[in-house]
Every structure is written in C-alpha cells, then in structure tokens.
Design a protein that fits this description.
By secondary structure, the protein is α+β, with helices and mostly antiparallel strands. It has helices at residues 12-22, 54-65, 101-119, 144-150, and strands at 2-8, 31-33, 41-49, 72-81, 87-96, 131-141, 158-159, 162-169, 179-187. It has a domain at 2-72 and 94-126 and 160-187: Alpha-Beta Complex (Cyclic Phosphodiesterase, Chain: A). The chain has four helices and nine strands; from the N terminus they run βαββαββαβαβββ. A hairpin with a 5-residue loop joins strand 4 (72-81) and strand 5. The protein is globular, with a radius of gyration of 16 Å. A motif (HXTX 1) lies at residues 40-43. Pfam families: 2_5_RNA_ligase2 (PF13563). A motif (HXTX 2) lies at residues 131-134.
Length: 190
C-alpha cells in the first residue's frame, strides 16, 4: 500500500522566491517549516492505495487532464488552518491570474479526486482550497502576526503546465519528515 497524492509543484523560480521570503523568518516561532523541495499544492490525497492501482490512477488522471486548459496562478495571501487564533498549519494562498484559472484549478482537483474514485481508492480531505502549506505547529497557537506578515508576500505568476503524482514515504526524509517520490508527471492539455 502507498500513500499517494496528486499535486501542483511550483517551478524552481517560484519555490526560490517563496523560500527567500521565508528564510530570515524561520528562526522565529515554533513552527515545523516545510522544506522548499517539498513545496506543493495538494489536489487529492489518498492515504492507502494498493500498489497495483498506482499506474492506473496516473493513467486515469492523465485522461482527465488531457483537455484541461493551462491556468496561470501566483502564490499570495495568508491562510491559517483552522483559523489565525487556533492555527495548526500556516499556508500561502494560490491566486488565479488568468481568466477562469480558479475554475480550472477546481476542475483539476476534481479530476484528481475522480480518478481515485474510478480506480477504487479512498480520497481523504475536504473541499479543495488551493494553498501551499509552509509550516505546521505541534499545538494550536495564535498566528495573527504571521498572517499579517504573509499578507505582504506576492510571488511571481506562472502557468500550471502539469500535475504530479507523488508517493509519500513517512519518516524517510530529512529530520524524520516524509520523503516524496515522483510517480508521474502529467501534462495539462492546451
């Protein structure tokens, strides 16, 4: 069984831009910061996928994304889950920059979830809310000041050219974090 998720992985320049913004701030606060090489926007998370279904999932997702237009987005704006007063995760929002990009992102996430259901695997999570998690907290805390700080961040825009299917191997990464393995990179249609 594999822990699998479909995601949008930002291009290197977008990752570098956000990482440079966060770097001088990482010593403050009791956060467990997301490593820059693991930045992603989750489309669908599947906690337990039978190994023999992984390739089939990627194929179904490819079928679903074949005619999907390329949205242009940027990272900007703070998100605190569940809220700023009782935060467990701190994130940066995904802002649509091209016409209809918000609808296209919803469609991409929906197709990632539908592909999972089609192959007979469970999808975890709630309604899609596009974001990139930058840090987690062990205990809930008030992050109002961090939210204000993140309001000042606006990243470069980029076209979302593909979705990536990743396997998550718990405890195998640096500092006992998960290690992500790319299973498939699926281009969006034009």
């Amino acid at each position: 069984m594999a822990r699998l998720f479909a995601a949008i992985v930002p291009p290197a320049d977008v990752v570098e831009h956000l990482d440079e913004f966060l770097e001088p701030r990482r010593e403050a606060g009791e956060f467990r910061w997301t490593l820059a090489e693991q930045f992603h926007i989750t489309l669908a998370f599947m906690p337990s996928v039978a190994d023999h279904l992984i390739d089939e999932y990627a194929d179904r997702l490819a079928d679903g994304l074949a005619r999907t237009p390329v949205p242009v987005v940027r990272l900007a704006g703070p998100l605190a889950f569940p809220n700023a007063a009782q935060t467990r995760a701190l994130a940066v929002g995904v802002v649509p920059e091209s016409e209809g990009a918000d609808v296209v992102l919803e469609r991409i996430a929906g197709r990632a979830r539908n592909a999972a259901v089609t192959v007979g695997t469970e999808v975890d999570g709630q309604r899609f809310r596009p974001h990139l998690t930058i840090a987690r907290l062990r205990r809930q805390a008030d992050t109002t000041n961090w939210v204000r700080l993140l309001e000042t961040y606006t990243g470069p825009e980029w076209p979302v050219l593909e979705a990536t299917v990743l396997a998550s191997h718990l405890g195998e990464g640096p500092g006992k974090r998960p290690r992500y393995e790319t299973v498939a990179e699926i281009p969006l249609g034009q």
